[in-house]
Amino acid sequence: MAGVNKAALLVVVVFVVMSSSAVAAAGGFVVCGVDGNRMLAACGSYCKAGSRERAPRRDCCDAVRGADFGCLCKLRGALKTMGNIDAARAMQIPSKCRIEGAPSSC
Question: Could you say which residues form the signal peptide (predicted)?
Answer without folding.
Answer: 1-24
